User: Fold this.
Amino acid sequence: MPDINALKSWLKESRHTVFLGGAGVSTASGIPDFRSAHGLYMQKKSGISYEEMLSIDYYRAHTEEFYDFLRKVMLYPDAKPNPAHYALSKLEREGLLEVVITQNIDGLHQMAGSKNVIELHGNENRYICVKCGKVYDMRYVMDCKGIPLCSCGGVLKPDVVLYGEALKERDLGRAVQYAYDADLMIVGGTSLVVYPVAGLVQYLCKEAKLVILNRDPTPYDSRAQLILREDLAEVLADTADL
Assistant:
């Protein structure tokens, strides 16, 4: 495939390659996307949008309902990495990929072996006591009924960025620096409509190449030197020669 060959060539030439990924990276692992026509954010429960139910205000006002929704709809404790995750891990091991910047909270990049991962939206496998700071994992929350509590009696909060919360400045700052230094950015499985994450593309220097691997058009397609609409997992697996 000529386009894949071009991408392979650019990877070998690049000194600073960044991968910016979204929900489309994990759909092959059985985790639904969010913003497509049939994504989770298009759905509602009892007249309330899923997006609203994942807000900090809903968590605070309806904590028990929030966790009930989380357990039934949002958590995938048995999800495993797919070829896309393993391909990115291999590229990192071979020195062809500097960092994975992800909007996903599933932790599958690390499970596949990636070491340098910036989780801009947090990780759904971490739950922190708002009272003492003790950390619990997803399995603990799944096994609880009602509101999960710490051994000290404090309420647990997912270590994820809920709607209405700001991204952690340290993580966003690191991502901006990697984007600024990149000479090749591969964007995969994201609509590039949610800011400030989508704005990372704007930090690329004029000489940097942009490759977009996404099923649907994005606002930054005109900036890209290469656009691939094929199956993301297959493209990345072919690129990494898996």
Residues 1-30+80-121+167-242 form a domain with the Rossmann fold fold (CATH 3.40.50.1220). Residues 35-44 have pLDDT under 50 and may be disordered. The chain has two domains: 1-30+80-121+167-242, 32-75+124-160. The CA atoms of residues 163 and 173 lie 20 Å apart.
